[in-house]
Queue: 3 jobs
Job 1
Amino acid sequence: MEHLKYRPDIDGLRAIAVLSVVIFHYFPSLLPGGFVGVDIFFVISGYLITSIILKSASNKSFSYLDFYKRRVLRIFPALSIVLVSCLIV
């Protein structure tokens, strides 16, 4: 897997997206279009995932199995905690 170089500008976009969604939820009249922060997250995720795939493909090291395995290992622990918490409560 190719690791991308750290991009502080992307972290800035993430912060703006988070703030816009939080402000929209708590003070909807203050930022009526704050829900667009969710769209920003989708765009950032698409950009990062595409960059990883293209970089791996250019090195002839891309594997769908490895790609999805990494996604599952990254997402499923948190998902499992949420599901178990919901079942308990």
Job 2
Amino acid sequence: LDLDAVVHLAAFISIPESMDQADAYFRNNEWGTFRLMQMLVRTKNWPLMVYASSPEVYGNPIYTPIDIHHPMLPRSIYAVTKLAAEKHCKAMHEWYKYPVVVIRNFNTYGENQDISANAGVVSKFILNALRNEPLVVHDSGKQTRDFQYVKDA
């Protein structure tokens, strides 16, 4: 491969769906990433692997703000597959010194975002506003989130 980098964004992303379709999530998210890493390590020039994981690997925060040292306590099959794929990437780096970067983007929003039931809060708010429906805030409403525009990701 004559590439400088591989940016791996492919994944099934629905948390509820992952609980009903665990095999599909394993094959796509975890096994697919494992196979990609196996293929890349056999290339002549090793392109940088940028793996898009998920903050879901942290589970419910034990403390905030979450930092890189926060325990990984995944609560869904989706989160487990993302964490396992991270571990595959990191093992390739540790064993072969393959160049890998793992990112965990929080609350990314922007054009062409999914507006289905599994969409992020920004999409849900926009869709509800366009429909003149209430903007539902869960819990106390005092929680904060960091949002990241897709072109800044």
Job 3
Amino acid sequence: MSFSTFTPRTAAAAAAALLVAVSTAACGADDSTSSAGDGTTTIRWIFDYFPTSGDAPILAAQKNGYFDEAGLSVEITPGGDVNQIQAVATGQQDITVGPATTLLQSVEQELPVTALGVVQPNSPIGLVCNPQSGAVSGDPASLEGLTIANDPADTDGDSVWVRFRDSNNLSGKITELSGSTAEDLLFSGQVDCLPAYLTYVPALVEQEFGAPAAVFELSAEAGVMGQTIVVNNKYLSANPEAVRGFVDAYAKGMQWTLENPDEATALITETYPDLDAPSVAEELPALTAFWHTPLQDAEGLLVVDDASWQQTADALMGVGALQAMPDLASFWNTDFLPDPAIKPAP
């Protein structure tokens, strides 16, 4: 199995495939409402990264007409090495998905953004270990004596790792190599484990070493959320029904992807020809598993409780990346969650 790498070339291919419309910052800052001229409302969406299986809800909403049903014309910009939440805050884009950790930091900086729903109740970042290291999946004590990479500049990975390390009393019992969490460190034997995305890095490790990686789901224990839907406040005020329709369509796209993994895999690979089907077929279920917990199964996709925000803030404060938990009402708006709820299994 060959795992695809997400590169600028892949992003360029995605742009061509999706007929991307890219707007300038000046235009975005001045226009809080936009009409396509046929009674539809335009939403400028930016992906959070180079093409991955995580794009499936948007692709499904396009394919199945969910955006059309909501009266929306969605203009898509590919992600990459950009701060997509900042692009939304400055008015270059209207809506995106981004890490809850980055959202909390943005709110503390008084950027005009609001969270509308949480795509990943738990971050997909975990600890991935060389299968020859002696680490045993789910057994923190087996990490004692190992060398673990960590990058304090990577807030997402650092916050969940430090919270996991401290809650399991591992300080002083492991060697931490700070500065990078590149997979090459693991493959070359410089470290035994590193924080990484559990959606695809374990597959790379198994491919490299010929045996399954030892993995630890850091975020579930640390209580750190992953991706959340983020909207520009000015756009939200001017276009509440369009935003409501978008969130509903996104949740329907999530539900369709969960129920139709084979069709979703085909849709992703048709849209992004540089991604190979076996890789997507393996990544997609690993990713969608992070879309729901028993809470979302009961109350609907995109729903989280207030405690989840506090736990995520606590993790950030634990590594000095956040001074205090912002007022929840200032950035978390549950009024736009789907009603009736859209559940993983209807």
